[in-house]
């Protein structure tokens, strides 16, 4: 129902801007779905007094998808970004703005997209994005990436992008070694070894 109000000036009382793109929004809708927006838009903050939230650390396509989700509980890939990369960005923006439902949905979509696309050149890019954009204690996407890599290690080691990922992303490499050895040492979980 709220979807019809997305990016319209009807009853809009706030704008969200990103790289010069302006999205019309509604304080009550953003606040209802995001604890971060609720604080920003209803307290003594610049965003509340100026009626604008400026987002600088995501591209407009990700911001658009986040806002669409807030209004309709779904997001589409309107920019042609590879799905697993978009889903990783959506998880990242959901975490930053404390949008629990979006974090859950983007994790589900990410799991499907890497299950279907692990053999593409996008997988190492998405895996690196996951590791640089999430704290080590947030295992949501990290465990999915490592499990897919473990299951498909024989094919992945022959790919330059994957080898580069292991060299340039030490946290991923450490997690992968733990999974390959059959243990998640940090969390005390056991996984079947690669030989099983």
UniProtKB/TrEMBL annotation:
Residue ranges annotated for the BTB domain, each copy included: 12-79
Annotated SUPFAM superfamilies: POZ domain
Organism: Fusarium globosum
Any Pfam family: BTB
Lineage: Eukaryota, Fungi, Dikarya, Ascomycota, Pezizomycotina
Protein's name according to its UniProt entry: BTB domain-containing protein
């Amino acid at each position: 129902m709220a979807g019809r109000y997305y990016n319209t000036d009807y009853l809009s009382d706030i704008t969200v801007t990103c790289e010069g793109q302006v999205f019309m929004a509604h304080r009550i809708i953003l606040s209802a779905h995001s604890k971060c927006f609720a604080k920003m838009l209803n307290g003594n903050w610049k965003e509340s007094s100026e009626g604008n939230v400026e987002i600088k650390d995501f591209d407009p396509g990700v911001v658009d998808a986040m806002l669409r989700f807030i209004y309709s509980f779904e997001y589409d890939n309107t920019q042609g970004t590879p799905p697993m990369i978009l889903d990783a960005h959506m998880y990242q923006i959901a975490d930053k703005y404390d949008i629990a439902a979006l974090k859950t949905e983007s994790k589900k979509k990410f799991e499907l997209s890497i299950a279907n696309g692990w053999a593409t050149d996008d997988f190492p890019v998405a895996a690196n994005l996951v590791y640089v954009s999430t704290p080590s204690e947030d295992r949501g996407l990290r465990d999915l990436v490592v499990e897919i890599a473990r299951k498909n290690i024989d094919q992945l080691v022959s790919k330059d992008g994957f080898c580069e990922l292991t060299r340039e992303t030490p946290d991923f490499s450490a997690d992968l070694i733990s999974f390959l050895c059959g243990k998640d040492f940090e969390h005390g979980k056991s996984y079947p070894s690669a030989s099983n």
